[in-house]
Amino acid sequence: MTPRHLPEGFLLGCATAAHQVEGGTDNDWSRWTAAHPEAIAGGGDATIAIDHYHRYREDLAQLAAMHQTAHRFSIEWSRVEPERGRFDRAALEHYAGVVRTCRELGMEPVVTLHHFTLPPWLVAMGGVTAPEAPARFARYVAACVESLGDMVTWWITINEPAVVATLGYLEGTWPPGERSLRLATRALLGLLRMHAAGAQAINGIALRYGREAQVSIAHHERRLVPRTTNSRVERALAALPDYLFNRWFLRSCVAGRVLAPVGHGETVPGLAGSLTYLGLNHYANEAVSLDIRAPGMLFTRHEAVPGHPQSSTGWAIDPDSLRTALTSLGNEFGLPILVTENGVADDHDELRPEYLRAHLNAVADALDAGVDVRGYLYWTAWDNFEWAEGYTQRFGLFAVDRTTLERIAKPSAALYAEICRTRSVPEAMVAAQPDAGAPTRSGV
After folding, report:
1. Which residue in the list 76, 160, 178, 286 is annotated as catalytic?
2. CA-CA to 182 of 20 to 30 Å: which in 34, 129, 164, 378?
3. pLDDT by residue (tens digit) across 49-75?
4. Which fold has domain 4-425?
5. The Cα angle at residue 144 between residues 103 and 195, in degrees rounded to 5
6. Is 160 a catalytic residue?
7. 341 an active-site residue?
8. Is 215 within 8 Å of 157 (Cβ atoms)?
9. Residues 271-322 pLDDT 10s
10. What Å distances lie between residue 221 and 13, 185, 398, CA to CA?
11. What phi and psi values does residue 109 have, to the nearest 5 degrees?
């Protein structure tokens, strides 16, 4: 069948996060895993992770050899500002080196400034709910943009604010381990103000130096749908949590004020116009049904949408949900969209090849429908520390030997490399070569 071609200049690459790959830093997550080892599936921590901090040059060269044209990574705030008000120039120069390496290898850097972790000194002040958090975040962002801004166009202020609020402050499975709807809404408000302050810092410095800056959050679109399609009760139950998780933050950014039910229309300086594109993280939708035993979850139970195959995380695999996410966001907000995360946990690389093909075809469908999609970043390059799931969930195109830390290409890495090389997506999977099922240790 005829392959579907992606537009000229369409970005293709992978996404990572500092704490998950770098190793060796002191932040709220490293302290959380030390204090609550039982909270991490399979045990383990990110003390070493995959040692990307020291191996980034060869790691990035491995991705560039796959013809990737973009790479998303995050800066670890705890490295850059290990103590309140003290910025580490060596850490900033390290991340400048990462950006320079991306540029030298022909990969567009997409830089995330907050990807789930916080410096301990900010946690002691109240974390994202602290009144000073927006100003402190803006100072840190300014230091990063001053150091890297002449080499970076694509910025992400905060990764998945709704996830931070839900897992850290409502469900309590992530730090700080709170279980309170009131605190979850405070966290959402704090993250909204942090984003606005960070966007102001980026745009102010870009304007001063005459640089282009594209600014967004990485929005996690995980639509909550009724478990039973024609159930009015389940549709009503899904409506409020779906709005809070999937639309409240973005609509507040567009409005420039804190929308109900989190606020009462208060204007936030720097919020209006703070999104110049949409970063989209999408993995799956969730089915919602009534659970009278869960008042903290607004009396809802969440599970995989029935009728679809599931990944090893138990998430439904439905490529059409990505197409729907792209078209609904594109139609509502009218902004360019960069898919900043999309991927599948797959222990034996059995699902990933078809997952890549089908989801990139969903992107092509959205492009055909007129959605301005600028690129696709697969989560993730290497199997890494997946937060509360530890090392039990394997999203990577490369396996990592936990003893030697050797990177071992999976068969899906070769497929993605060919997609990146040709900038085209097969409409159907072709028969595998005889040796395609064997991982290789020398790249793809």
Report:
1. 160
2. 34
3. 999 999 999 999 999 999 999 999 999
4. TIM Barrel (3.20.20)
5. 110
6. yes
7. yes
8. yes
9. 999 999 999 999 999 999 999 888 888 888 999 999 999 999 999 999 999 9
10. 20, 18, 26
11. -80, 135
